[in-house]
Design goal:
The protein is of the alpha+beta class.
């Protein structure tokens, strides 16, 4: 067992925008505080869109993130449409859902198969796999490519999709691209299904009583529904600000949020805990063994939930693509003359995403707010880390092992800065 007082400093997290550090203070062999110091440069997206026409806002705000740009684009478009009283067609709604499903497949695929999988096999990265595991890399790339192809077919590009727009889509998927996407999705399904077992038979567990929050709708929709919590609340999308409270973290450049003044968690685990009955029938059938663990309060089950979500996204995409005949439509125009505020709420890969847009009577943006999933999880992550480290200290686990396990818990949350397999430089004081 460790004696005395010491700090664990995890510095210089690489491959992110800006820098992130984590400091853990231990006194009398007990972790007393954890500080996640996100020191990204301010980028002023919310202010930059002020003065723009409503049609320009989504493409600018979607630049907040590359990998999740389809999610931001969809959410901002929804906010603008509600502010401008624009009703989109059922076809456009379906295309938006497909775009998000592609985003889920490729984003979860990258995180699980390239950042988390090495932890399970005890290596630093997929490049350290022995030859016997070459098939894992091949299968992982296949699943990720299926997500990319779906985004390409629907949005015109996997990152910052140009087809998506306020009111609908500028272009429709070509029949050839739909055929190619369908072929790739069907071939990738079994690979995605095989990966679930790897994240089911895990070697780490950390359980916490948690209030989970997610947008829940029919058909496990990522764009429609109401906000639900595991504490029993049901909230309409436009009322989100009555329940989310911004928290200033003095040692970090990032904002944090509480739900009704308490910590909470969003993400794949929250979605499955609250909405698993809405998964595709084929997903429920083939994943029945794994779905029995949900609802779960084990943070490491967030990765299992992501793995199941990939299969569900494939199943839903295939069903939608095979049943739809896309036809050219006229994008509806907004009626100017009234100032208004619109709210967009969707489920991004890492959890519930909120965009608020205010416009004046001429359709010029005068207000903007963005609340991303990682900001909502920060307080929960920090408090979880205190309990997690204390549990390891009580067992006499070495500092080096504690540091490695801390990384794994960070990756279980899948925060935005989780961009490499082993990214933490450890300084012990």
């Amino acid at each position: 067992m460790h004696k005395g007082n010491f700090n664990i400093s995890l510095k210089n997290i690489s491959k992110i925008e800006g820098h992130t550090h984590m400091d853990i203070a231990v006194k009398n062999n007990e972790a007393v505080s954890v500080k996640l110091k996100i020191s990204e440069n301010k980028r002023f997206y919310r202010d930059a869109v002020k003065g723009m026409g409503y049609k320009a806002a989504p493409m600018h705000l979607a630049r907040i993130c590359g990998t999740c740009s389809p999610a931001h684009m969809s959410c901002v478009c929804e906010a603008v449409e509600r502010a401008m009283n624009i009703r989109i067609s059922e076809q456009s709604r379906a295309l938006r859902e497909l775009l998000l499903l592609g985003n889920i497949i490729r984003d979860h695929g990258m995180h699980l198969y390239f950042f988390c999988l090495p932890d399970i096999f005890g290596v630093d990265s997929v490049l350290d796999f022995d030859k016997k595991k070459d098939n894992l890399i091949h299968n992982a790339l296949h699943v990720k490519e299926a997500g990319n192809m779906l985004c390409n077919a629907v949005g015109g590009r996997a990152v910052h999709p140009p087809f998506a727009n306020v009111g609908g889509f500028n272009e429709l998927p070509s029949k050839e691209n739909v055929r190619e996407a369908l072929k790739e999705l069907k071939e990738a399904r079994q690979y995605a299904l095989d990966f679930i077992d790897t994240f089911f038979v895990k070697d780490m567990s950390f359980k916490r009583d948690t209030n989970f929050v997610a947008l829940c709708g029919k058909g496990f929709s990522y764009i429609d529904g109401v906000i639900k919590t595991s504490s029993g609340k049901v909230i309409e999308e436009e009322d989100y600000r009555e329940h989310l409270e911004k928290v200033i973290i003095p040692y970090s450049n990032a904002s944090a949020f509480e739900f009704e003044f308490k910590e909470f968690m969003v993400g794949a685990l929250a979605r499955l805990n609250l909405n698993k009955d809405e998964l595709e029938k084929s997903t429920r059938k083939d994943c029945s063994r794994y779905l029995k663990v949900f609802p779960s309060n084990d943070i490491f089950h967030n990765n299992l939930a992501q793995a199941i979500s990939v299969v569900n996204a494939i199943d839903k995409s295939v069903k939608m693509l095979e049943s739809m005949d896309f036809k050219k439509e006229k994008i509806p125009e907004a009626k100017l003359g009234k100032a208004n505020v619109g709210v967009g709420v969707i489920e991004a890969p890492r959890g519930t995403l909120y965009h608020m847009i205010g416009v004046d009577a001429k359709g010029i943006v005068n207000r903007s707010e963005v609340i991303i999933p990682t900001s909502q999880n920060v307080i929960h992550l920090e408090k979880s880390m205190v309990d997690f480290v204390n549990a390891m200290l009580s067992k006499g686990i070495s500092k080096e092992k504690i540091s490695m396990n801390v990384e794994r818990l960070i990756r279980a949350y899948d925060p935005c800065m989780s961009c490499a397999t082993h990214f933490l430089k450890i300084n012990w004081k």
